[in-house]
Specification:
Number of helices: 12
Strand order of the largest sheet: 3-2-1-4-5-6-10
CATH topology of the largest domain: Rossmann fold
Distance between the termini: 30 Å
Radius of gyration: 26 Å
Number of domains: 2
Number of strands: 12
Mean pLDDT: 87
């Protein structure tokens, strides 16, 4: 029996991953939580729950001493110094208080690539553009450095957008495809979704020695397209239309400056069109007619475009491109592999929620 200790098991992702781990007959998930209340749901679903923190080394050994793998889903908010102190404590204790052959996984996210509000491309940024990215990179580096020093096999999972039966992004997507929108425009690049089923599958392979230590980008492999993601939640007979748009080519500096100048000129004409007609253009009737027609046509096109956009959903802040980084070698294609285990987890949850409250997908 492989024992996997899950720190931060009371969160949305940690809870669902514990349930998927429970679907493996040779795996025993152990939920590590801070209070009895936070572990109540998992205990009702027959998941072993251990209560405590990693601050005390003796308590830490009681919590993690028999684990073959420890995975840390815990999160910390606040000042940068507090977050770094949390990671130092959790990572060092987990590595020091487990058996020599035990493995460790630090849960990070694709935000560690360094994206920010103005830096939306899917790539590795040299400078992190958010506090979250900075602190996650700190935890990643610490994990790999301490693992090497202590002779432990350590891993980092940079999770994409996590979907599953209990995940907020799944519920938001489910509501989106049932909204009045009938057309959806997404980038013509792979989605960066990952399902809790695949996270659990990856952890099982790591625990069994099937993956090499390192930093991994954990996105469904092969990746789902945005069309497949929306249609998964909408169903085959939904009638929604998903259009995958190509990324706009980036204009050179001269072309960009010309476009910006033209835009300002159009704004000026919109604002001062009547002033120009009254004081300048009436001296040249032919030019006045052409300018007036041009403005009317431009306004009509804008109004038509706005009307057509009412039923079109265009997501904001969706990263375009392919995220770099190695993938786990042994994970399966979730399009085909996760259905049976998802049904098992749904059945577990129905014991406490009731079947009518659980989503079909």
């Amino acid at each position: 029996m492989t024992t996997i200790g899950v720190i931060g098991a009371s969160g949305q992702v940690g809870t669902e991953v514990c349930l998927f781990l429970k679907t493996y007959p040779d795996v025993c998930p152990v939920a590590i939580v801070r209070t009895g209340i936070s572990g109540a749901v998992l205990r009702r679903l027959d998941v072993e729950v251990r209560i405590g923190t990693l601050g005390d080394p003796y308590q830490c050994r009681d919590l993690l001493g028999d684990c073959d793998l420890v995975v840390d889903f815990s999160v910390k908010s606040g000042e940068v110094a507090d977050i770094k102190a949390h990671y130092r404590g959790n990572i060092s204790r987990a590595l020091e208080c487990t058996r020599p052959e035990a493995r460790y996984v630090f849960i990070s996210t694709i935000n560690a690539f360094g994206m920010g509000a103005r830096f939306n491309r899917a790539k590795q940024y040299f400078v992190p553009h958010s506090v979250y990215a900075y602190t996650k990179r700190y935890g990643e580096r610490l994990t790999m450095r301490l693992g090497k020093r202590l002779g432990k096999e350590t891993y980092v999972f940079r999770l994409g957008h996590v979907h599953g039966l209990l995940q907020r992004v799944s519920e938001e997507t489910r509501q989106l495809v049932r909204s009045p929108y009938r057309r959806f425009e997404y980038p013509d690049t792979p989605s960066y979704t990952i399902f809790c089923h695949t996270i659990a599958e990856g952890l099982v392979h790591v625990a069994q020695g099937g993956e090499r230590p390192g930093v991994y980008t954990l996105i469904s492999e092969p990746p789902w397209s945005w069309r497949e993601v929306l249609q998964y939640y909408a169903g085959p007979d939904s009638g929604i239309e998903v259009e995958l748009r190509h990324s706009a080519a980036r204009a050179g500096p001269l072309r960009g400056a010309a476009a910006a100048l033209q835009g300002r000129a159009m704004q000026f004409l919109d604002a001062y069109g009547e002033t120009l007609r009254a004081n300048v253009l009436h001296h040249a009737p032919s030019l006045e007619r052409r300018a007036t027609a041009y403005l009317y046509i431009r306004r009509a096109k804008q109004q038509i475009q706005e009307l057509q956009s009412l039923n079109v959903y265009r997501p904001r802040d969706t990263h375009e491109g392919v995220f770099p980084g190695p993938r786990l070698a042994r994970i399966s294609d979730s399009r085909f592999s996760m259905s049976a285990k998802t049904d098992q987890v749904r059945e577990m949850l129905s014991r406490i929620q009731g079947p009518s409250r659980l989503p079909d997908r």
